[in-house]
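Researcher: Let's run the pair from yesterday's discussion. Sequence first, then tokens, for each.
Model: Starting with the first of the pair.
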Amino acid sequence: MSDLGQDSGLWMTRAFGAFAGSAVSLVYLLPKSRREAASRLVTGFTCGLLFGAPVGLWIEAQLGIRDILSGHETILTGSAAASLTAWWGLGVLMRAAERGSRRQ
């Protein structure tokens, strides 16, 4: 798994996982504006691309399924999880900051 950077199929898998994580996260926390949606989409997609492999390997280790998943499945799972977490986390932070600015 150390030579994941050069395979175009793995990059497509990362992109698909990152997009899927961003799309699924809409169910959890809907954006209030187009600007919020765009910023969360870019953040989620970027985090899914960058952190897909490490998150996938961490999930495999935590669940004990290292022998079951292929490299593509590991990347897909990790990208979706990283994207979902980033999108959702950014939404929560933006709303908390908005509430804090209203109180002042």
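Model: Moving on to the second of the pair.
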Amino acid sequence: MNLWLQLEQAGLDDSRPLAEVLEAMPWNADGLIAAIAQQHDSGEVLMLAWMNRAALEETLASGQVCYWSRSRQQLWRKGETSGHRQRLVEARLDCDGDAILLLVEQQGPACHTGRPSCFYNAIRDARVCVISVPQ
């Protein structure tokens, strides 16, 4: 039985070693997995980025969120230049391990545009409407 099916059938507080889970994660062809950052206390979805195993391991070890920059092809430590860091509160995997939810404490705006969230374009009545402005 694969690990994800075992976890699906597991009881509350059952656990598996992290190394075993990281090995079983379905990283894409580029060795990446989608990571969604959510403000831990309000539930606001802040952004979607990508992580490789090194970024995930650094995030878990340091408590500061680190992503993989696909454009720069290097680790991207959120807030390293802007100061708008994300402190990890909790990391969660979805049911089949192909996405990570990062519950974070966001310091400053999450979006490079200066907006609180990257999700500021709402689709409404066949139009795309900007629903927030830079802070």
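Researcher: Give me one sentence on the second I can quote.
Model: The helical segments are 3-9, 18-24, 53-62.
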